[in-house]
Structures are given as structure tokens and as C-alpha cells.
Fold this protein.
Amino acid sequence: MVKKTVFALAMALALPVAAQKEASVTLKVKDAKEKINKEIYGQFAEHLGTCIYGGLWVGPDSKIPNTQGYRNDVLQALKDIKVPVMRWPGGCFADEYHWMDGIGPKEARPRMVNNNWGGTVEDNSFGTHEFLNLCELLGCEPYVSMNVGSGSVEEAAKWVEYMTAADGPMAKLRKQNGREKPWKVYYIGVGNESWGCGGNMRPEYYSDLYRRYQTYCREYSGNTLYKVASGATDYDYDWTATLMDRCADFMKGLSLHYYTCYTWSGSKGSATEFNDDQYYWAIAKCGVGVEEVLRKQIAVMDQYDPKGKVDLLLDEWGTWWDKEPGSIEGHLRQQNAMRDAMVAAFSLNTFHQYTKRLKMCNIAQIANVLQSMVLTKDDKMLLTPTYYVFKMYVPNMEATNIPLTVKCDYFDAENEQKNSARRVAPFVSCSASKMADGTVNINLANADLKNATKVTINLDGIKGKVQNAQILTSKNVADHNTFENPNLVKPAAFNGAKIANGTLVVDMPKTSIVCLQIK
Ligand code: AHR
């Protein structure tokens, strides 16, 4: 007995003891007004690396099981996360894409060099029909990015006519190519990153081009268009101000791009090998970092458009690390660890707070590139930790956001590469939403690498029982799924949440994400 006590004491002194921390959340149910558009959970499919070819599309003659050329495993995975909208064909690719090369008999389609992404030669076998039919199969909205950088107004105008007109010369061509009925295409982007890979334009010049291009994107046969102007990156508030000043009356949405990466020049760091400081810095960049950018960009939009007629679309976001060792230069193929899942949860919780103006977000990219949902290798596919966050958050789509406040400890992380400010940010992130049937969703993330946290949530009158609680966690935050071990990081049932006297108490293990429902 004495021996045992001495041993326990020695152990306690020798090992750093992980403390149980405490955090509290207060819901403001009466302030719940804004719907979380399902498009906040949007995806982005770019002709980049093996996102399209090999990732989504293998062609109908492939030995890999497929439906009309689309991989069955990927199709099912995407159906399970109820993809609401998919942006295509880029990205930088969009401003070099000539859609007419991607229609008609496959053997007659010209090949093209993907200049932005490794100079890979593509055969154009995935074009307008293949994309729009995929959206129909998945039941998601297409979001088509027009080529402004190297295209023409005529080309853009004819593309819209080809996709959406019931009659006329472009409809005739579409019918000859096997599609009788026009597709419904609502979202169209007029250029991509027009300040950079989309033409290196200045905002004044792009504003005029935007006005011109969008004029000729017509609404045919009852199809209505939601026109999106190419917006700023991160902290470029001048671009937003100029576009809002000159074009607000001609657009329904203005885009924004924001990536969680350490630097734009040099190494972005490994996706699976990183130190604690790098980890915390990434969490701060997607937590308080993206919050600040959304708040400030929205404040600029408010100045020009106080009635909120123009929506903000974060149509590219996600983590951007160094390419997977051994993968092709320019293909941006990256692994996806528990750290990425944490970035996704923190980001989504932040997006929920801004849905009054923020109506769509598209994580980059859906397969085999940056913060992807799935990774494929020949006939194998794995689901990433980020995929599981999207799956756990599905009930939040179209639910009403419940505003809340969080009180918890903060961490202080410095970017090793010193190109950005030190970031102080909370360990705990939370969002809540109410579904049409009264069910309340609670989404929690504890970024703490060492400590479990007891989160006490004041439910502000919400009644019910805890149901469908799930947890995503892993022993190490760098853990990730591989083709050899595809199930290392995946959700499990969670029983660490209880309601007593109008308070929900959730015992969050270190580095964990918990989603539950109260009904
Ligand atoms: O997602 C990769 C690239 O990042 C996109 O093509 C471009 O729009 C952005 O710079």
C-alpha cells in the first residue's frame, strides 16, 4: 500500500499532468435570426492535379467502378455529405479554359496544356456536359466560373446560352451533343482572382470588364442568373471597396479568397509534420484570422451597400501546405491530418456567425488537392479528417444560427516565418443552430493539444435530450488517414455530454471536435 502511494506520488511529480480546463458558452436563443445557407458547405472542383481526372472522373471505360465515368466511391462519399454547390472549372484554370474545347465527341476534343498547374496536358474529356451532369447526379447547384482573363465576351455569352437556352443556335449545338433539355445554372462567376492569375488587373479596370462581361450573360428560357464578381484576397480591402463602388448594382455576389497557410513564398510547411507553435498558428489563422477578415470585408461592403443586396461568397478557403513528398510539382496534392479537421471546425463555426452577408463558401478542393474531402490513388479512395467534419456538420445546413459567446483560455502562437503578426486566439470554438423541427445542433472544437476541457453551455431555455453525439479526435494531431490505414481518424459515438438544470456539460478530450443534437 505504502509502496503504491509512493509510486503514484513519484509518477505525479515526474510527469506533466494534463489539467482539466474549464470553458463556458452562453447561447442567445432570442437573437437567432439568420439562416445558415447550405451553400456555406460548398465545394470547389478545379482542373488541378488529379482533382478532376482520377479524382472525380475516370471515364466510362475505366476498370475503376464508375457511373457514366464518375467514380462510384467518390460519388457515394459526396452524396453522404450532401454537397450543396460545386464551383468549376477553377480557380486559375478558369481564366485559361475555353469551353468549346470540352464539348462534342471526346475523340475530337483538342488537348490542352494546363499552364497554371504543372503544365499537365489534359484531353478535355471532362467538360461542360460532364460537370453539369455530375451536379445533377449529386443534386447540387453548379457554380460555373467564366474565362475573363484570356477569353472573350462572346465566348462567355455563348457558354451561358449553350448551358441554359431552350432554343437558338447554342441550344441546337447542345442538342446535337446529346443534351436536349437546358440545364439550370444559377451561379456564374465572372473571372477568378482577376488581380492575379486571372489577368493581373487593377480593380478599376476589372470593374469595367466585369460590367461588360456580365451584360452579355443573359437569362434564357426562365433560367435566372446569380452573377458573382471576382473579389479580393484576404486583407485587400481596396479591391472590395472599388468593386462595390463601381459594380454593386450589377452583381448579386462578390467573392473573397482566404487560405490558411504560413506564407505565399517558399515552403508552406509539411501537412503531417509540424510543431505545436505551427499548429496553434494555423488554428489562430482560421479562427480569429478569418473572423477579422470577414468582419472587415463585410464592413467595407456595408458602407456601399447598407441594405445588404450584395452577398459575400468565400469561394476559396482551406489549408495550403507543401505538396505530398513524391507527388508531381504543381499538382498541390496534400495530406489531410487531424489539424486540418480542427481548421475546418473552427472555420465553419466562424462562418456560421456571418451568414447575414456570407452566403456561400467553397473549400479548396474537393479531391486530391489542398484541403480535400477525399484522396484517391488508382482504384482506392480514403475519406479525410476534414471530410468527417463536413459530415458531422450536415445538420447545420439551412438551420438558423444561434448567436453565442464563449469564455475560455487563450493561446499565443507566433508564426515561425515571421511574415505575419503573432496571434492570440481562444482554445475553444463553438457554434449552434436550430433546425426547422426545433432540433438544436451544438458544434464544439477544443484545439488544446494537452488539456481536456469541460465546457458548460447555458442553453437559454432550450429543452430536450442529447442525441446523435459524435466525436472526432486522434492520439496525435498530425494523425491522418492513408491507403494502408484509412480509418485512423474517423468519428465515434460520444457519451461525454449531459444536460442538467438547463445546462449542457460536455467533457471535451484534448484536440477534439464534438457535434451533438438536443431534441
Ligand atoms: O486553389 C488553388 C488556387 O488558389 C486557385 O486556382 C486560385 O484561385 C488560388 O490562387
Observations:
- The chain has two domains: 3-32+403-518, 38-54+86-127+143-398.
